[in-house]
Give the backbone structure.
Amino acid sequence: MSAPSWEKKPILFLLLATATILVGTIVTMVLPFAWVNSEEERIAGITPYAPLELEGRDVYIREGCNNCHTQTVRPLVAEVVRYGDYSRSGEFVYDRPHLWGSRRTGPDLARIGGKYPDAWHFQHMAEPQSIVPRSNMPAYAFLSAQGVDPSGIRRKMEVLGFPFTEEQLDALAGKTEMDALVAYMQKLGRDLPRGEGSTPVAPTELTNPFAGDAAAVAEGALLYTEHCASCHGADQQGGIGPELTDGWDDGDLFSLIYAGVPEGGMPGFSSLGQERVWKIVNYLQSGGR
Amino acid sequence: METPQYNTAIVRSFIHWSLLWGVVAILVGILISFQLIRPELNLPPYLTYGRLRPLHTNAGIFGWAIGTFFALFLYMVQRLCRRPLWSDRLARFQLWFFNATIIVAAVTLLLGYSQSKEYHELEWPVDLMVVVLWVIFSINIIMTVIKRREEQMYVSLWFMLASLVGVAVLFLVNGAAVPVSWFKSYSAFAGTNDANVQWWYGHNAVAMVLTAPPLAVFYYFLPKATGAPIYSHRLSIVAFWSLIFMYLWTGAHHLLWTPIPDWIQTLAMAFSIMLIAPSWGSVVNGYLSMNGQWHQMRENYLVKFLVLGITFYGLQTLQGPLQAVRSFSGFIHYTDWVPGHVHMGTMGWVSLVLFAAIYYLVPRLYGNELYSIPMANLHFWLVLSGQLLYSVSMWIAGVQQAGMWHAMNPDGSLTYSFMETLVEMYPYYWARAFSGIIYVAGVGLFIGNLVLTARKGKAKDVTPVPAGAAS
Ligand code: HEM
Ligand code: HEM
């Protein structure tokens, strides 16, 4: 059998190989530009990054946070309960580059904006283990010592064509990279109305099922340490969140913890489930401190 | 007339440097493995996990894998074309420029200059260095092929030439960016488009760097090691063309369930499954070439590396398509399962084949038989057990993690908080870190063996081109 001519003609071979590679490339990589980021995908309310937020995004890229954190929520049940409403294409039109990531060593951050107060982020970024003791996230305290460069940020805004005002640039004076990073965190997912995913399932009962159960108090104490102590202090003395005082009605306390106070920086804990939230309520109401 | 000479010195130099970068990659891999269990090992600002992980992947892929491919391509192209390199000076310059690029890459990654795209982190000036490097290399290979003295191009040359054009197209498109300063640029694409372009690149970097070149090496060195030819030329043809055709359709299997249009995801899933055929075409061709030679598995340490290597390739190309199925992806995507997959490919398939090729070259580079075959055997068992421990522990970890992430109570609440799932991973992370130490011990033995061989031998810088048929 004599060899086909492409086996003897390198230039012909290179042309054939290139053409072969280009078929799938054109269909799956070039053609999608016609659909993606089109008018139909636009979502009202999605705005470009403000100067400080953009700088924070660049710090995020520089520090490689995307090696541990993703920024896309998939439409899977548990994922929506854990992170919030699933992601849509139109949310990302201002993301150059995208930061979807491929590994979740840490949690997804697509909906982190507004989940915690700024103070939480400052402390967490400086020393994650002070808030989440067994976290493996690195400490980024050095960011507080590094200022931002307003003229560089102006150039970046211009290159990306994002709107900005002189006041915004003037306000950058004295800001640190930590301020920028926290501003970026608070922007993520903030432009969307709180979607269905993050609305807790309405509680089914409002009486404490564990009243007087001593074993449940101990479990509640553990849950408190894991989920609440970072903001309200180990002894409920307050910190990032207020001191927790007595005098609550069981049902009111439950509802507050279950739904949170989103505008006040108190996260909702519906994803823990009613039973565990009741255990926390039970612990707080038992005077456990 | 002067007899033409194969340039062996350049092959040896590339191997030495790529081994150095390989060791760096593995040591950084071990360091980041420990950082995931002991976060105090992060030394900000330069030595944090977020900056070191890209250094690990870049040193592994560009330093160790591509560095060794440079060496082996330059070796194979001369033999398969039965003539010296088109330009020895260009090859020398390439060696120098390769090391300069790797050093600049490492320094800039530690300084945090990054485009953030996986396997394409390097910022635009370093990107340009990579382009220059690839152009120099391609010209030298292509010109040598054009001026060859062997009429037909052997299979290995097809895979080599395809990877030259493939990498060029992928790298240039995905690298498109608008610079804002010397070390900062913004991608030319936005959001979902950017993600789609990135994973078209990312998956085909696997095709054009971690599949086609090691296959070229395999098709050349297996017959060399066993003395028996490749089983079927026709099978090689079919496997080659269908492989390079299908790979390019599959990038979106890294983006299943994301906002990428559904039809792209479905195409990616379908083509990923079809990819089993051409991948296994090469595996079967390799196995059948071993007909009547299986006894060499015991007698010939080279064959062990090659056959285990192609076996991991076979497993890799079954596991990959499985991961590309939507339902399975929904489960294991983002978990530790994926590093298990990755390292069976890199530490198993790619590295085993490269070790074999380097062993084969030893007498030709150092003018001396290998110092110790028992050491080579121990090297084999150490890297094999290190890699298996790595992958198996990560697969178990990934399945457990996925199960916990998705576990829900009857009332629709989550069974586990994120931290409850993370702390369950720490024992597996210890196993992984330990596996890295076993692996690096194996590689240390390998390098020691080479050094001892070189010390006793007399290095040969050139080898006369034989007058007869190509070898
Ligand atoms: C022997 C020791 C090695 C160790 C201990 C090691 C360790 C690691 C670790 C800890 C990660 C991060 C995983 C994560 O994101 O959770 C990683 C990722 C990676 N490593 Fe290695 N590695 C080793 C060898 C190699 C080699 C030889 C190569 C390449 C030739 C390589 C290529 C990669 C790649 C491509 C990734 C990215 C994986 C992904 O995105 O899922 N590694 N490695
Ligand atoms: C038929 C062949 C293959 C298919 C269909 C395939 C499929 C896949 C899929 C679906 C993923 C994404 C997993 C996830 O994140 O959920 C993946 C990841 C990966 N595969 Fe494969 N694979 C194949 C062969 C290989 C080979 C031979 C290698 C060689 C080393 C390899 C290296 C990688 C790497 C490095 C990643 C990690 C990408 C990242 O997330 O950073 N794959 N593969």
User: Anything to note?
Assistant: Residues 418-456 of chain B form the longest helix (39 residues). The two ends of chain B are 23 Å apart (CA to CA). Chain B touches chain A through 92 residues (CB under 8 Å).
